[in-house]
Amino acid sequence: MRRDIGSTDAGGSTSMVDMGKSKCQPQGSGIWVLRRDNLYILIIRWCTQSDGIRYSMNVCSVCAHVCFLCSSSHHHFLEHCAEYPYITNQSIHQMSAFTAVVTGATGFVALEVVKQLLEKGYNVRATVRSAADHSKTATLQALGSAFPGKLELFEADLLSPGSFDGAISGADYVFHVASPFRIDVEDPQRDLIDPAVQGTRNVLASVVKNKNTVRRTVITSSVAAVHGGKSKVPPTNGALYTEEDFNKSSTVDNGEAYWASKVCC
Question: Which residues form the domain of 42?
Answer without folding.
Answer: 30-89
